[in-house]
Every structure is written in C-alpha cells, then in structure tokens.
Amino acid sequence: MAKRKRKLQNTKKTFTVKVPAANRNYKDTVFRMLFSNRKNLLSLYNAVNQRDYKNPDDLEIVTLKNAIYMGMKNDLAFIIDTNLYLYEHQSTYNPNIPLRDLFYISNEYQKLVDKKSLYSSTLQKIPAPNFIEFYNGSTILSDCTELKLSSAFENLSGEPKLELTVTVLNVNEGHNAELMQHCSTLKEYAQYVARVRHYAANMSLNQAVECAVDECIKEGILAEFLSKNRAEVISMSIFEYDKELEEKKLRKAEYEAGFSDGEKSGHETGFSEGHKSGFSEGRESGFSEGQNHAAIETARRMLQSNKFTIEEIAKFSGLSQQEVETISSDA
Description:
Blueprint: H1 2-14, H2 30-35, H3 38-49, E1 60-61, E2 68-69, E3 72-73, E4 76-80, E5 83-90, H4 97-112, E6 128-135, E7 144-148, E8 165-170, H5 177-182, H6 184-200, H7 205-219, H8 223-228, H9 230-269, H10 271-305, H11 310-317, H12 321-330
Helix pairs in contact: 6-7, 7-9, 9-10, 10-11, 11-12
C-alpha cells in the first residue's frame, strides 16, 4: 500500500496539466450536455425569462467552439428575439465570472461583426447581452444574486465607465422553486446532483454516481437522458465532483498560504501588503496543482472501474493517452 502511494505521488509530480490550448479537448459537463439539446435549452430560457416560445429552431446557437480562457469555456451561448444570452454553469463560487464573460462576449461580438466595417458611418447593430450563471455548489447562496465587473476595479472613483452584470441563480434542490416548476429538466438535474452528493457522503464516488444514475432512471428522473448517455454521464459526474472537491481544497490552501506568507512578510512591508502578496502567490501556484490532481484522480477512478478505454479516459479527464497509460501501469 505504501509502495503504491509513493508511486501515485511520483505520478503527480511527473505530470503538469497546463491551461488547455484552443485545440485541446474541452471537457463537457452534465449540465452542458443536457442543455445543448435545443428543446431543453428553450425550456430553460422560457422558465428564466417567463416566455412561452414553442419552436426550438427559434434559438440560434452561437457557442464559440475554440474560445477557451484559463482552461474554461462558456457553456452555452445563443440568440433569440434579438438578444444574446450567455449561460454558464458553476459548481463552485467564482467571483471572476463577469471578467470571464467580458472576454467571451468580446469574442462573440467580433465574430458577429466579421466582414463588416466598423469605420463606416452606419451604426452596426449588435444583440443586447444577457449573462446568467446557474450555480449548484455547496457554498450557501441565496436564490438570486448578482456579480458585477466593477467589483474588480481597483480604486474606482464615481460610476464605472464599463459594467457587466451576471445574474447568479441557485439551482440546488430546494432553491428557486418557481423556476424549477417551469423547467422540469432543470428540476430533475438538481435532483440528480443531490443524489450524487447524498451517496458520495457514505460510499466511494464511483459507487455513488452509479447508484444515483440507477435510482434516477428507476424513478423517472432524467430517465431517457441517463439511460442513453449512461457511460458519459458517469465519467463526467466523477470528474465534476472531483474538481469541486479539489477547488475547495485549493481555496483553503490559497487562504492558508496567503495568510501565512502575508503574516511573515508583513513584519517587513506592512501586514496588508504582505498578506495580499502571499495570497496571490499561493493562489497562482495552487491552481495548476489542484487542476492536475483532479484530472489524475478522475483517470484513476475510471481505470479502476474497468469500463473505459484509455482513449475515453484521456478525453474525459483532459490528460493525454500517454499520461493515462503511465497512471495505469503504476496502479
């Protein structure tokens, strides 16, 4: 056991999972896979905006395929009724979503006005943007909150000259009852996530996800979707849950490293500046390690199940096939 643990530790040191380039596989989430279906997406849009569109073809999907920033990609982007909507799903609290959406909407607008002259005397019309985050993490949030880009501005004086507001909707089970009532797919997704977390508290993650999938199919919760995409959903759920836990550990490490280093250097430069510097350094060094560990843990769990090929594991974990093969040989 000790020998195997040493091997795993060596594996972690060997691999460096860098920020994905545009041509690297981007890992889907269960949420994105579920609502990439036009019918489901239209139902979600209607519920959020209290509309009653019937034809899924009214949605013009404009999600950018290669727009990746900091290893993350916008989940869903679409135009309907001359408005542009960016939908994002998050399982951990992230105050930087407005800044990420700013980069993304810039790419969207650049694409939409391609081949049009911005130097002409004619005003180029663009769809009005709307930013929605669907949050189902374990950190307690109210049903509806807002995140503003201006919160990130240093030494802001007066009204911000640039603003971007993201509406955050808590879609955990028991929240936003009216929204859930008008979108059964979202309600059942929340039920599925709640089952995974419930079982994961008392059994291995592999077993927890499989139990949640089996139970939901039996009870008619996302039954058709889960039955059709069982293997993919299980692998995605394992990755998402691992990633959520790793990000929690990372945030704790960020705070501890920032506080410790800041307190140490604070004696020389002032506590406030020292704490700020230490926190930033701890955050930067911890991010890649947390992402790396989550990917390796996902690959290990999938290997242990003996249900997936090396190629499938590489695709879902974000590791290369060579990295997965090395983990397999060291296990």
